[in-house]
Design a protein that fits this description.
Elements lengths: L3 H17 L6 H13 L1 E3 H11 L6 H13 L4 E4 L5 E4 L6 E5 L4 E5 L2 H13 L13 E4 L10
Helix pairs in contact: 1-2, 2-3, 3-4
Length: 152
Amino acid sequence: MQTQDNKNNGIEQFKAALKRHSMKATPQRLAVHEAMMKLGHASADMVTDEIRSNSGTKVTVASVYNILTNLALLGIYRHRMSANNKMYFDVNTFRHIHIYDCENHRYKDLIDDGLMELVESYLGRRKFKGYKIEDIDIQIIARQTRKKFRAL
């Protein structure tokens, strides 16, 4: 659960990141970021619904999508395409693995430094003719095994 101090710290860090990229901390950008901090992984539709439900800020899905896309291009967020052809955004830009629930179209972070080090070490020794590895992005596609199990 996020405390008020963590929330304020996250907003201040976000404002500083915007400033580094010569962007203003508009009410819409702040509302998008607050929604993303709450949701973690979300599509523009999900963020728009969250803002409309919990904020006085007026936004459209198109404006939210544009904000999310611009923030992802700057590296403030990350983005990934789901199997249902929706772009999902992730507030966590640190090195981690995703488990993708292909039935519910939800992402969950899997933090496994040992596995990441193993993969990076293995791929670091490999040569791919004509290519240089820029980044490693691991996504595990999964299906829930028990219906009673809580959604990711």
